Amino acid sequence: MKLEALLFDVDGTLADTERDGHRVAFNRAFAEAGLDWNWDVRLYGELLAIAGGKERIRHYVAHHRPDWRQPADFDEWVARLHAAKTRHYTALLGEGGIQLRPGVKRLLAEARAHGLRLAIATTTTPDNVTALLDSTLGPDGRAWFEVIGAGDVVPAKKPAPDIYAYVLERLGLPPCRCLAFEDSENGLRAARAAGLMTVVVVNDYTRDHDFTGAALVLEHLGEPDMPSRVLASTLPLDDTVVLDLALLHRLHAGKP
Ligand code: XBP
Ligand code: MG
User: Fold this and answer.
1) Among the atoms of ligand 1, which is closest to the Cα of residue 183?
2) Judgement on whether residues 141 and 245 belong to the same structural domain of the protein
3) Ion ligand 2: protein residues whose beta carbon lies under 5 Å
4) Atom nearest to 122 CA in ligand 1
5) How far apart, in whole angstroms, are the C-alpha atoms of residue 250 and residue 177?
6) Which pLDDT tens digit goes with each residue over 138-160?
7) Is any ligand 1 atom within 6 A of the Cβ of residue 22?
8) 247 with 173, same domain?
9) What is the pLDDT of residues 116-129, one digit of tens each?
10) Is 90 exceeded by the pLDDT of residue 256?
11) Among 9, 13, 19, 22, which residue has the most ligand 1 atoms within 8 Å of its CB, making it the best to mutate?
12) β-sheet bridge partners, residue 179
């Protein structure tokens, strides 16, 4: 079965956006709204178990602020607070402080040069995706991806497979012709539930997650002068690799 498309998660996979991006933007939105809430690095790691910013705010209120008096229009209030968070997040990206992870641009460029189709399947808000692509790949970046599936276009966020099913349908491809890239257990579960073989790149928030079912688990995608350690693999591999198209094809074919 030919490999035809690569499907990428965004947060934690294309770039380390959570600790110094989303978390900071949530806190700025809280301060702006006159709330004394502060999501420190450790608490935010716990809250990441809930995918989606609006869902994360609701979970925080329910479990960490049970005595706080909710406004009558709570859902709209959350939506407004979250819109402010998106504004802060996209402004942060515009400042250029967040870069793509090692090997991401190299692999995307190689895939494009060889006619592989590219897509995005993420829980985050669409504006956040375009802001990240613009700030890291430049004005052409969005066009590298044939389908961008993001945010509330599907009702159920990861670990539900819905966003992957949405992207596969738009690509017109069965999962067996695609590979997914993820950084978290929720993301891996979503991709696997959609029938996708999945490569995982860990980060500080996710390295202790359960990645059972991943085809390959790496520190990062690797660069020629900075190969990645192999943390788990369904193929016998060296201790370190630079994930290129040749290795992806071998992985997809299940050939050592
Ligand atoms: C990413 C998320 C997102 C971001 C915040 O998960 O969970 O909620 O943290 O984005 P994944 P929004 O990488 O698995 O897609 O605030 O825009 O929802
Ligand atoms: Mg992710």
Assistant:
1) 13
2) yes
3) 9, 11-12, 183-184, 187
4) 15
5) 13
6) 989 999 999 999 999 999 999 99
7) yes
8) yes
9) 999 999 999 999 99
10) no
11) 22
12) 6, 197
Total domains, the chain: 2
Domain edge (last residue) among 94, 127, 146: 94
Cβ of 128 below 6 Å from ligand 1? yes
Instruction: Give percent above pLDDT 70 in the chain.
Output: 99
CATH of the domain at 86: 1.10.150.240
Are 123 and 245 found together in one domain? Answer: yes
Domain closes at, from 94, 129, 155: 94
Contact 256, 250 (CB under 8 A): yes
Give the distance (Å) from ligand 1 centre to CA of residue 120. 13
pLDDT digits (tens, 9 = 90+) for 9-25: 999 999 999 999 999 99
Domain shared by 219 and 148, yes or no: yes
- Residue-number span of the structural domain to which 131 is assigned: 5-16+99-253
Q: How many CB atoms lie within 10 A of CB 116?
A: 19
Same domain, 90 and 137: no
Ligand 2 centroid vs 161 CA: distance in angstroms?
Answer: 14
Q: Which of the ligands is closest to the CA of residue 203?
A: 2
Helix 74-94 with 23-32: angle, nearest 10 deg:
120
Strands 228-233 and 240-241, by their bridges, are antiparallel
Residue 47 has pLDDT above 80, yes or no: yes
Ligand 1 atom 10 nearest Cα: 124
Residue 83: count of CB within 10 angstroms of its CB: 14
What CATH number did the domain enclosing 202 receive? 3.40.50.1000
pLDDT digits (tens, 9 = 90+) for 221-252: 999 999 999 999 999 999 999 999 999 999 99
